[in-house]
Specification:
Layout: E1 2-3, H1 7-28, E2 44-45, H2 52-58, H3 60-68, E3 72-74, E4 86-87, H4 90-102, E5 106-108, E6 111-113, E7 123-128, E8 133-138, H5 143-163, H6 172-177, H7 188-192, H8 203-206, E9 215-219, H9 235-249, E10 252-256, H10 280-288, E11 291-296, H11 300-308, E12 312-314, H12 326-329, E13 333-336, H13 343-352, E14 357-358
Parallel strand pairs: 2-3, 3-4, 9-10, 9-11, 11-12, 12-13, 13-14
Antiparallel strand pairs: 1-7, 5-6, 7-8
Helix pairs in contact: 1-5, 2-11, 4-5
Length: 376
């Protein structure tokens, strides 16, 4: 009989497809020894090659015990970690980005996807007679799974070349960041409920390298590397609203962000300084120490505000309940703008709240709780 597959079953089915594909490739062309890179790192964990929000939600706190034990971690966001514990190596990230680009892979939701997701989900046919059984998995087009398998192979070869040494064991963190969980968010409910807040704040936030006065912040999201981008900001609305908030509070407005991924309006005070392209992240973290309220896009920027405890109003929430996972562990001060209410009223309510605040939202999870006993 043909069985419908929930998204939680799709993940393991895709995992089996990729494993068989890789085993077939290895049998057809036996792998050659992987040579160590000349800049090999010892006692260093590989990076989470996903977006910033995924690193904040799922990665930093998980590697924290390793850092306390003397390990280091590779990261695009080395400024987030305690001093001396994180490494940003442009050569490594360039090699990793080349692999992802070659196979159409993007980092999203704390993992990898090959868009468009859910394009060719596996189908299953099962036969059981009480004594024996047979399961037949099929997929209409295996090109997406093939791309994922090849990407995993190349990423893991890169990992061996850069991070392996004689007594280095491959651990759970290595495996997690070098694997596709699912092309269809198959394990997203479990992962999204497992966020952990680091026990520390970034060093540049605790000790700003360039202290500035109290201010209102805004970031205008404008990603273009993947289409469509429904979470991109409405720049005119964001600037008008942020200006109104700053006027209401009697504070200066600062626009945060980098031209690669954000809109930086001309004539505004910004955290971006083209004459000083290095140190951007440390400068922004220092500025955020005195940010009294942030108007944020629906992005990892809001996750950063939650970690830093900066009161934040969110432009939109594209996925219902997406920030609900932050409630218990991050305890953010995060509100969602209601465009039918005066913005000053919403600002005052958020700032006057005595403790953590998170707007209510009904989450649409891929795994129904009532069906959980029958899920993998």
């Amino acid at each position: 009989m043909n069985l419908p597959l929930s998204r939680a079953v799709t993940g393991p089915a895709e995992l089996l497809f990729r494993a068989v594909i890789k085993k077939a490739l290895a049998c057809a062309d036996p792998p050659k020894p992987i040579l160590s890179n000349k800049r090999r790192y010892e006692r260093v964990l590989p990076p989470l090659l996903s977006e910033m929000g995924g690193e904040i939600r799922f990665h930093i706190a998980r590697v924290e015990p390793w850092l306390r034990a003397g390990w280091k971690v590779m990261s695009r966001h080395a400024a987030f970690y305690p001093e001396g514990t994180a490494i940003y190596d442009p050569e490594f990230f360039a090699a990793a980005e080349t692999i992802l680009k070659n196979f159409g892979v993007v980092g999203s939701r704390g993992g990898f996807v090959t868009p468009p997701v859910d394009r060719y989900p596996p189908q299953v046919e099962a036969q059981f007679d009480g004594a024996s059984g047979k399961i037949v998995l099929s997929v209409a087009d295996s090109s997406q799974l093939m791309a994922q398998a090849l990407a995993e192979i190349e990423l893991r070869k890169l990992f061996i070349a850069w991070f392996d040494y004689d007594d280095r064991r491959i651990n759970d963190i290595d495996h997690f960041v070098l694997s596709f969980a699912s092309a269809a968010w198959g394990f997203w409910e479990y992962r999204s409920a497992s966020v952990l807040c680091p026990s520390f704040k970034p060093p540049a936030f605790e000790n700003p390298p360039e202290p500035i006065p109290d201010h209102v912040g805004v970031q205008i999201r404008n990603l273009t590397h993947v289409k469509p981008q429904p979470r991109n900001s409405d720049p005119d609305w964001m600037m008008a609203t942020a200006t109104a908030i700053a006027k209401h509070l009697g504070l200066e407005l600062i626009v945060y962000g980098h031209p690669h991924g954000c809109i930086i309006p001309e004539g505004c005070k910004t955290s971006w300084d083209p004459s000083r392209p290095t140190g951007q992240k440390e400068r922004e973290l220092g500025y955020l120490k005195s940010c009294r309220l942030m108007l944020s896009p629906d992005s990892g920027w809001a996750d950063l505000m939650a970690w830093l405890q900066v009161p934040t109003l969110l432009e939109q929430s594209y996925l219902p309940g997406d920030f609900e996972c932050l409630r218990d562990t991050f305890q953010p001060r995060l509100g969602l703008v209601d465009r039918n209410r005066p913005i000053a009223e919403q600002v005052d309510a958020l700032l006057a709240a005595p403790g953590p605040q998170l707007f209510p939202a009904e989450a649409a999870f891929p795994v129904d709780k009532q069906s959980y006993p029958w899920e993998p």
